[in-house]
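Preliminary data (for renewal application), DI6 complex.
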Amino acid sequence: MAERFDRIWQNARLATVRGDLAGLGVIEHGVIAARDGRIAFAGSRPDFPSDADATERIDCAGRWITPGLIDCHTHLVFGGNRAHEFELRLQGASYEEIALAGGGIVSTVAATRASSEADLIAGALPRLDALIGEGVTTVEIKSGYGLNTETEMRQLSAARAVGRKRSVSIRTTFLGAHALPPEADGDKDRYIELVCREMLPAVAQAGVADAVDAFMEGIAFSSDQTARVFRAANALGLPVKLHADQLSNLGGAALAAEFSALSADHLEYTDEAGVAGMARAGTVAVLLPGAFYFIRETTKPPVELFRAHGVHMALGTDCNPGSSPLTSLLLAMNMGATLFRLNVAECLAGVTREGARALGVLGETGTLEAGKWCDLAIWNIERPAELVYRMGFNPLHSRVWRGR
Ligand code: DI6
Ligand code: FE
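Predicted structure:
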């Protein structure tokens, strides 16, 4: 009897991004077949049963299909914006100076605390739609602009809610240790105590976070304080990730590796010991060229060392109101190539397979492979390099999330 599928995409060129780490896993005469939202077949025409039956057949007319894109690092849900700080920076103030003068993250905290869940959802949806419009099918969203239990929970709940309003997979991350709230009166240790004793258990109890993140930096938290958060997260069974070595080298990458973090992110100032630790732990390096660009950083992440040590590299937008108001993952790919010298295969893997790995969902999505969710991006391009090479142009033809 002929095998039955819900949908078949035929006459396509596939960049499966599976197998050979350095390559795109190209299949020239490709077919994808979906059943119950999952990929049932992804391969070459001659290997596909010729008598297969399907409810719908889609002729891709030679277009390219990649896995649906994954933005593995965003702060998409927040109140207000920071255009005024941008003006101050144009007059010469630095990102750190603004933060130390009481602006920066805590100004977004005030705006977020003043926002209802409905406000947060309404603010986040246009940003999410911009990502979706470029073929993104999975988005990670962090909290970190509440800095008290109630508002952190509201942010996480808004993040989950936007996922129910759109055809997209959302992964949420609790980032209570993002900055010190004004009411903490400069007492970072006491605030970390609150994060570990009150916020984290509440978040875990409510089941609203898939992972726990922290910002380890001079203007944020120390190695010791970060380790306390990580131990508390582990005790609750939650995996960790870290904003590491973004503005200085405090050994963030090494600490993340010690805790077998899913990812360490930013990494501009990471040294070879940190890179080696990440390689041993299998911690993904999430590079965020939008933030590098926007705060006019000049020290680049050690891409050569990541390659030499075999550390997997992902790319994200870091969409946030202060250091990376970026809602284009395609532009992040272009910046990854132009600013950090990633090659085309690294950029495409960085927003698919490696993004999935950084979120711990590689078994479910991120490559074109039978058994995974049928999350696809279908492109009007002649070669994959076009996804990286253009700036501000969107060649998406159509997008499929879980088979639709
Ligand atoms: N690093 C970043 O780039 C963002 N958070 C972080 O820890 C910036 C967040 C902001 O400025 O609002
Ligand atoms: Fe970030």
